[in-house]
């Protein structure tokens, strides 16, 4: 028994520094991945003709959404869906409007880069171009080496997408007026917003799907009447496009309402110009009972979910041209 | 002569099927060729005239030294260019483009905020239109993140 305890003690003494060293090494690599991901996020060389970066559609001032109904691709192919915001995106299991098989943000980031339905950044089959363009930049050479030392700084879709994932996982938005009031345990500053909050978590049952704190349950629902689908310019069957299951037709992931006031237009196809229009599109019995005043109150509450520290955070902004290393 | 034929060919391509344009865009059809500036020093040779459409030549992004860092920077394989235009009065102005290049209008080192965006009607040859409330003065018009070596470009006053 004593021998056993001594063995464990010696193991812990030896193992502890190694764990710390490992942790420190991971941190340095991780920091480099975040810095690299940030540069890549704003780099249009990730698109076939150099015209689009991730940030072309994901604008920080709009909580990383886009002001258009749908954004055309680098080769002018029409966009399929409204660009979703990226606040707290690292907290979601299901990514994009309608996909439940993505392993994480790394795999997701390759959808716009090399996806073909629709063509967005148009890099399908052009991994060699990524390697060539980024590889001729001395700063990228250093960053890839620091971020992926075990892979000797190799530049390919895998390392690019993992760096993008690391950067996007830093997108934390939790300093809205609502958050501040909740922390202080006080009411929201306007009567409309406070009544809207009561409605949201009460009679209107918005919180059932737009569940706090993410203001999304990260699940899939059909909330739009089928006849409204005729508005769609392109064929979009939601989750069933991925699963092939007819039961998943017209089912979409609940979007987060954090910073929603900054991300118009709304709905998976961008067909709702305002938050009020978006609420009206819900095919719910509660919607039928909402008065104009109640709608105003709900919108006033959603306004309090805007986090200006998030959209102005310099850590997420376009990096300086100067190489950090 | 060779340039004349080139302009005719490009203009024919751009406007193969004519669309009916509103009066404020009537200048869109008459094109004169202009090269872009690659740096601020070359700007006097790339001076735009209000209400006059130009077929502008664009240059590879790595060769350009912008006056201010573009909001949407193009990659190394994209095209862009610099131009200047002097506005005699304050008002609402529209920049009209045949391609999807990003537009920044710079004065005193800062980009003017846009107030509206639109696409042109079908067969108009217009890819994008961006409106700005501008003061009088000289602006640098920067095109960035373009896919092509050329584009038709027009700056017009709306009101």
UniProtKB/TrEMBL annotation, chain B:
It comes from the Bacteria. Residues 1-16 form the signal peptide. Keywords: Signal. This is Homogentisate 1,2-dioxygenase.
């Amino acid at each position: 028994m004593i021998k056993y305890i001594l063995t464990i003690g010696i193991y812990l003494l030896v193992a502890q520094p190694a764990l710390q060293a490992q942790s420190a090494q991971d941190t340095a690599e991780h920091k480099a991945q975040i810095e690299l991901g940030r540069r890549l996020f704003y780099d249009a060389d990730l698109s076939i003709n150099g015209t689009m970066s991730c940030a072309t559609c994901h604008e920080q001032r709009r909580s990383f959404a886009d002001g258009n109904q749908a954004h055309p691709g680098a080769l002018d192919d029409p966009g399929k869906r409204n660009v979703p915001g990226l606040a707290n995106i690292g907290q979601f299991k299901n990514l994009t409007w309608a996909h439940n098989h993505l392993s994480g943000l790394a795999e997701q980031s390759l959808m716009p880069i090399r996806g073909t339905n629709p063509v967005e950044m148009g890099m399908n089959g052009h991994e060699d171009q990524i390697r060539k363009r980024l590889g001729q930049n001395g700063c990228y050479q250093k960053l890839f080496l620091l971020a992926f030392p075990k892979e000797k700084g190799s530049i390919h879709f895998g390392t690019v997408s993992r760096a993008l994932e690391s950067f996007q996982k830093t997108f934390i938005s939790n300093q809205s007026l609502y958050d501040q009031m909740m922390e202080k345990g006080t009411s929201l500053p306007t009567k409309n917003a406070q009544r809207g909050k009561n409605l949201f978590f009460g009679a209107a049952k918005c919180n059932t799907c737009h569940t706090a704190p993410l203001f999304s349950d990260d699940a899939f629902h059909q909330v739009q009447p089928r006849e409204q689908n005729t508005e769609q310019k392109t064929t979009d069957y939601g989750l069933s496009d991925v699963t092939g299951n007819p039961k998943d037709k017209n089912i979409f992931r609940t979007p987060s309402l954090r910073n929603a006031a900054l991300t118009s237009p709304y709905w998976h196809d961008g067909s709702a110009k305002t938050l009020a229009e978006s609420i009206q599109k819900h095919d719910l019995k509660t919607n039928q009972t909402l008065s104009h005043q109640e709608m105003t109150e709900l919108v006033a509450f959603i306004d309090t979910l805007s986090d200006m520290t998030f959209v102005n955070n310099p850590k997420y902004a376009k990096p300086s041209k100067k190489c950090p290393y | 002569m060779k340039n004349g034929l080139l302009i005719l060919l490009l203009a024919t391509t751009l406007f193969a099927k004519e669309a009916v344009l509103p009066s404020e865009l009537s200048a869109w059809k008459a094109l004169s060729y202009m090269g872009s500036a690659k740096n601020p020093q070359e700007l006097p040779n790339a001076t735009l005239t209000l209400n006059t459409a130009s077929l502008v030549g664009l240059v590879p992004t790595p060769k350009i030294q912008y006056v201010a860092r573009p909001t949407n920077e193009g990659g190394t394989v994209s095209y862009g260019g610099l131009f200047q235009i002097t506005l005699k009065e304050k008002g609402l102005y529209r920049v009209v483009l045949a391609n999807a290049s990003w537009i920044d209008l710079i004065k005193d080192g800062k980009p003017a905020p846009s107030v509206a965006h639109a696409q042109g009607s079908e067969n108009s040859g217009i890819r994008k239109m961006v409106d700005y409330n501008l003061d009088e003065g000289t602006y640098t018009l920067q095109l960035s993140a373009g896919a092509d070596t050329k584009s038709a470009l027009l700056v017009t006053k709306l009101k």
